[in-house]
Please model this.
Amino acid sequence: MSRQDDRELASRRRFLKTVAATGGAVAVTAAVGQAGSAMESEPETVQAGETTGYHETPHIRDYYARAEF
Model:
């Protein structure tokens, strides 16, 4: 192999290592950002007289009417 080939090979390896490291950093940043935003939100509180759980609302009834089960 010539020196030019060695330099191209080293350059290509450096590029691929950088791409892999950047992809990993982006994935970690996205995961940390999602976890952080989930932690910041406050839980919903139930007002007095309200019930929790399933509620059949007009948009749900509309969905059932259009759905083909």
Q: What stands out?
A: The mean pLDDT is 78.
